[in-house]
Amino acid sequence: MKNLILAFTLVFSTTFLVAQEAPTEVKTEFDSVSLGQSIFDLEGNKLTVGEVLKKYEGRTILLDLWASWCPDCIKGLPKLKEVQAQYPDLVYLFFSLDRVGKENAWKNGIEKYDIKGEHYWFNTEWKNDFTEYIGINWIPRYMLIDKEGKIAHYYAIHADDPQMMEVLVESTLNPETE
Prior knowledge:
By secondary structure, the protein is α/β, with parallel strands linked by helices. About 40% of the residues lie in helices and about 20% in strands. The chain is globular, with a radius of gyration of 17 Å.
């Protein structure tokens, strides 16, 4: 029994340590497969990630990948709301990783936590073409997307990540980039 507990502890702690590793490859744009990933809006309309991003071309987007069941996502909301107050002109997109069939949990989470922005749900398991492409291994995951639809900041696990905020400040100070 002792060995079983030790093995479980080792597996759990190893998994936890690996979960927050930043991707080794930093991507600056999405490929056609990731952009073709299906996603649903609050009314149940099926779109693609590419169609969603295209709607906001010409504007900077802060993308938040989250789920209503994720404690770290919920803990991060106050910081996200501070960023929203500081940068009200950004587009705030939320892509939910709530599990298949958990549409009500997703919608209830948006309402319960008063999450302001544009909301979409993959209605897939954790891995799909989009999440595979960006190498997601933890949520929340934040990305900054520039007005051309390119990835300006690829990886952050906090809404107020200093490097992401630096990119955001640069884009707001330079009118050609915002």
